[in-house]
Design goal:
Structural class: alpha/beta
Number of helices: 18
Strand order of the largest sheet: 7-6-12-13-14-11-15
Largest sheet: 7 strands, mixed
Number of domains: 2
Bound molecules: flavin-adenine dinucleotide
CATH class of the largest domain: Alpha Beta
Helix content: 25-40%
Distance between the termini: 21 Å
């Protein structure tokens, strides 16, 4: 039996690995020159400076049931920072989320108890949080008590009801910086769901870890597993028309798995009209515009506490971060854009030549925006780190409207595989208990446009593979496939 996977992002590779382990002869076709999609790393600026093209920090990967059971987590050398994430609040002033919950809470003054009560129980029951957020939202959770705990926090955090829950500017900004990952208006329930999940990971054993050498290590571990089981990846193959692709015979059990925009499925013959309408209705959301910097030395943060924080939310106060995200949601760029910055080389010397550093940073922008983010990001970091500009040796920018050229799944520069709204948490891209299955025999959707959505977990790819295996009456539990 043959399985053809289009796209080698973490979800495509997860599906490929699971199917190869189940006896399929697997071929992965990838448009880019490097395999890995959102988990690829390259020398984008100068020789010796290794930059993550997509994802940089990986709390959901370390906790992913797929990566754990498939042995991928064990084959990556993780760096586990003491600081999970930090918020640059004002020049010389920041708030820190340590992996240690108690230390974090103690640093938040009058919000010590509030932070412990809000995030502590979610961190303590992280497996329940991962089960709830890492699956189809329509499924009954395995740990209903934790799902209820999560929902009870999501409601106030995602609405005006929770405005007074945190009183100090530090705690308010620290939480808002992590809610802003969702690229939604703030407050919003979708932002609260993504943010609380990430904040919960912040105080766990794996924390906000990331692979030594870059995100490519995650893709490479999966490719090694795939190849060991007879599969292969072909790069430089952009599939534009599925009707012209020989992927085998579904009647014989051959499979086609799409780690792509679901819209690619519309190029198949015989797509039922109703299904085609649903795929066309599936919406892409605001986008990201990113810059990678090669630096002559560390970022000269005015607050030295940020020096060893791999992830820095350069967002200012809660109000500033919210204004930035709400402007983008209304199709504009705010006056002081929220910058999501990662400085991996502060703990990973393999990422830059001796004494030098890399910095990864993006801002949210409207879908399809042509804005070059370099000046905006440089100015914003300079505000919190005077002298930053002088440390820049080289930079490499990707505007939102250019991202699709490197990854055809990133429609208009949307890096989340489709708008992360509450409605699209349930309709991704269709509503149902198995949205990975399409009405076209043998064809499955395997990417971030299916549940559980964005983030490097491999779970969407795994769900697609297990659905296909179950449809063929084959063993389809993680324990069986990876026994
Ligand atoms: C800049 C950026 C920062 C991010 N930061 C983080 C982070 O820190 N942590 C985190 O967990 N997540 C992060 N993410 C999100 C994460 O990378 C994605 O959610 C994840 O990679 C989705 O995996 P995927 O396999 O569904 O799709 P992708 O990783 O997008 O992979 C899809 C692959 O399919 C290929 N492809 C698509 N269409 C075709 C076609 N027609 N023919 C051939 N090949 C095709 C693409 O080239 C690509 O390689 C980030 C993403 C980006 C872009």
């Amino acid at each position: 039996m043959r399985a053809t996977v289009i796209g080698s992002g973490p979800n495509g590779l997860a599906a490929a690995v699971a199917l190869a382990r189940s006896g399929y002869e697997v071929t992965v076709l990838e448009a880019a020159a490097i395999a890995g999609g959102g988990t690829s790393t390259a020398e984008l600026t100068l020789p010796g400076f290794r930059h993550d093209i997509g994802s940089a920090v990986h709390p959901p990967a370390i906790a992913s049931p797929f990566f754990r059971t498939a042995g991928i987590v064990d084959r990556v050398d993780w760096i586990t920072p003491d600081i999970s994430y930090a918020q640059a609040l004002a020049p010389g002033r920041s708030a820190i989320a340590w992996r240690d919950l108690g230390r974090t809470a103690a640093g938040l003054g009058d919000d010590e108890r509030a932070w412990r009560r809000m995030i502590g129980p979610l961190s303590k029951h992280i497996d329940g949080v991962v089960d709830f957020t890492g699956n189809n939202m329509l499924r009954v959770p395995r740990d209903p008590a934790t799902a209820i705990r999560f929902a009870l926090r999501m409601l106030p955090t995602g609405t005006r009801l929770g405005r007074a829950a945190l009183r100090t500017p530090e705690a308010q900004a620290l939480l808002t910086g992590v809610l802003a990952h969702a690229n939604t208006p703030l407050p919003s329930l979708a932002g609260a769901a993504a943010g609380l999940m990430l904040a919960a990971h912040g105080h766990t054993r794996g924390g906000w870890g990331y692979p030594r050498g870059g995100a490519q290590a995650i893709a490479d571990a999966m490719i090694a597993d795939l190849e060991a089981n007879g599969g292969r990846v072909e790069t430089g193959v952009h599939v534009r028309d599925l009707s012209a692709l020989d992927w085998g015979d579904p009647a014989r059990g051959d499979l086609l798995m799409l780690d792509t925009t679901p819209r690619l499925a519309l190029t198949l013959p015989d797509v039922p009209a109703g299904y085609a309408r649903s795929l066309r209705r599936y919406a892409y959301g605001p986008a990201a515009a990113k810059v990678d910097f090669a630096l002559d030395g560390p970022v000269p943060w005015a607050d030295e506490a940020l020096a060893l924080a791999p992830t820095v939310h350069v967002g200012g106060s809660r109000e500033e971060t919210e204004a930035s995200e709400n402007a983008v949601a209304h199709g504009r760029l705010g006056a002081t854009p929220y910058v999501l910055a990662v400085q991996p080389s502060v703990l990973d010397p393999t990422r830059a030549p001796g004494g030098k550093q890399t910095l990864w940073a993006y801002i949210h922008v409207p879908l399809g925006s042509p804005i070059d983010p370099t000046a905006f990001i440089t100015e914003r970091i300079e505000h919190f780190a005077p002298g930053f500009r002088d440390r820049v040796l080289a930079s490499h920018a990707v505007a939102a409207n250019a991202r699709e050229a490197g990854n055809p799944a990133a429609i208009g520069g949307d890096i989340l595989g489709g708008a992360f709204t509450l409605a699209q948490a349930f309709r991704r891209p269709t509503v149902g208990l198995a949205p990975w299955r399409t009405p076209m025999r043998g064809v499955y959707l395997a990417g971030a446009s299916t549940p559980p959505g964005p983030g490097v977990t491999g779970m969407a790819g795994w769900h697609a593979a297990r659905t296909a295996l179950a449809d063929r009456g084959m063993p389809s539990s993680l324990e069986h496939v990876f026994a």
